[in-house]
Design a protein that fits this description.
A hairpin with a 2-residue loop joins strand 9 and strand 10. A four-stranded antiparallel beta sheet has the order 1-2-3-4. It has 158 residues and is mostly beta strands. The two termini are 31 Å apart.
C-alpha cells in the first residue's frame, strides 16, 4: 500500500503504509532514470532497494517529503485505523540507505472529523519553506472539511 512518494537525489522513494511487521515499516526505492526510461523492459536486477524502519507497532508511513539535503521527512501513523497509534514526523538524514529515523514531533490532532463515526487522519505533509535545519510544513487531514491544513515549524537537529 503506497502512501508517500518523494524524489531525493537520483532515487524515487515509496513509503508503504502496509505491511507493518513487528513495528517495522518499509520504504522501497529505485533510480528515477530507470523507472522513467523509455520502453517496456523490466528494471535491472538489484536497482530496487527496500529499507526497513522502526517506527512503532502498527505504525506505517502516511507520506514522505524530500529535503534540500537529500534526506526525507516521514509522516507516520496507523497502518490501518488503530486509534491508539499517533501521528509523528521523522527525519531520515542522508544517506537514506543506512541512517536511522529520528522522531521530530508528534502531531496533535485538534481538528474534528466531518462525521462522528470517523476520526481525523493526518495524511499528507508539504514542505513550504526550508532554511538549513529549520523546516516549515503543512499537514493535511482526511475525514476533515477542506483538509484542515495545520502549519508546523520544526528543527531537524534534535
Amino acid at each position: 500500500n503506497i502512501e508517500g512518494i518523494a524524489i531525493a537525489g537520483e532515487r524515487v522513494y515509496f513509503g508503504l503504509r502496509t505491511p507493518v511487521t513487528a513495528g517495522t515499516a518499509y520504504i522501497v526505492s529505485a533510480p528515477a532514470n530507470d523507472l522513467f526510461a523509455p520502453g517496456t523492459e523490466a528494471l535491472k536486477s538489484g536497482v530496487v532497494k527496500t529499507r526497513s524502519l522502526s517506527l512503532g507497532k502498527k505504525t506505517g508511513i502516511r507520506d514522505l517529503a524530500a529535503l534540500e539535503n537529500g534526506g526525507l521527512l516521514i509522516l507516520s501513523g496507523p497502518s490501518v485505523d488503530q486509534r491508539e497509534v499517533g501521528y509523528k514526523i521523522w527525519h531520515l538524514a542522508p544517506p537514506i540507505s543506512t541512517s536511522e529515523p529520528v522522531e521530530l514531533v508528534t502531531i496533535e490532532t485538534k481538528v474534528k472529523a466531518k462525521d462522528k463515526a470517523e476520526i481525523p487522519k493526518a495524511e499528507a505533509i508539504t514542505i513550504i519553506e526550508q532554511a538549513g535545519d529549520k523546516v516549515v510544513l503543512i499537514v493535511n487531514y482526511d475525514n476533515v472539511d477542506e483538509g484542515a491544513p495545520s502549519r508546523h515549524e520544526i528543527n531537524l537537529k534534535r
